[in-house]
Every structure is written in structure tokens, then in C-alpha cells.
Design brief:
mainly alpha, 74% helix, elongated
Length: 134
């Protein structure tokens, strides 16, 4: 397993800035096995998103004790999520909006199974497309 790629993918899918796509493309250029590289990057990226989901899920109690402004933000996120639904988690790989999507999914207590399924499919498709284009 390419632990550097795994770590890069994990960190880039949390609320921290970063990107693992360049490293994935570099590894492919070096001749790495595309299936192994895509699987490694996907696993790290999904784990990072799951950590963000967990922050939302277990941090909800702290947010509920927050200010009136925090309560309005949670209500707004709930309305947005109801409008676009769980399939929006397929876009958790997108820059800027992907990490907050995972956080909101945790806050709104989306089931772990559907979260993991949708996020994994979206992130796998992104890495597979990059590898295929290479």
C-alpha cells in the first residue's frame, strides 16, 4: 500500500486543505498499478470524509448548545439537505463543498451505510476517471 498517497488522500478529504490528485497522477506516471493506486486513494479519501461525518454526528450536541446563529445554520443545512437529498453525497469529492457536505450529513444523522456507499461511489468514480485519463 502507498501510505503517502493514503495519507494525502485522507488529509485532503477532511476540513484541512490539500489535494491528492497530483500525487495519484505522479504515482501512475511512475508505473504504479492503477487498480491499487485508485483503491488506496479512495480508501484514504473515504476515511477522511468519514472522520468529518463523525465530527458532525458527535459534535451536534455541542452545536445545539450554540448560539441562535448556529441554530439557524443547522436549520438552513437541514432544509438544503432535504431539498437535494442524500444523492448530493455523490459530490463529496468536490472542492469547497465536499467537506461541508460530509459534516452536514453527520449533523443530520444520515445513516452510516448510505453515507459510506454514496461517498465511496463518488470518490471512486473521480479517482478512476483520473487514472483512466492518464
Amino acid at each position: 500500500m502507498d501510505w503517502t498517497l493514503f495519507g494525502s488522500a485522507l488529509l485532503s478529504s477532511t476540513l484541512l486543505p490539500g489535494g491528492s490528485e497530483a500525487l495519484l497522477l505522479y504515482r501512475l506516471h511512475q508505473g504504479a498499478d492503477p487498480l491499487a493506486i485508485v483503491a488506496t486513494a479512495t480508501a484514504g479519501n473515504v476515511l477522511g470524509s468519514f472522520m468529518t461525518y463523525g465530527m458532525g454526528r458527535f459534535g451536534r450536541r455541542a452545536l445545539q448548545r450554540g448560539s441562535e446563529k448556529t441554530d439557524r445554520h443547522i436549520a438552513r443545512a437541514e432544509r438544503w439537505f432535504v431539498r437535494f437529498g442524500r444523492p448530493s453525497l455523490l459530490l463529496a469529492w468536490l472542492p469547497v463543498v465536499g467537506d461541508p457536505l460530509c459534516l452536514v450529513a453527520g449533523i443530520l444523522r444520515v445513516s452510516v451505510l448510505s453515507f459510506l456507499l454514496l461517498v465511496t461511489l463518488g470518490k471512486l468514480a473521480r479517482y478512476a476517471a483520473l487514472a483512466w485519463l492518464m
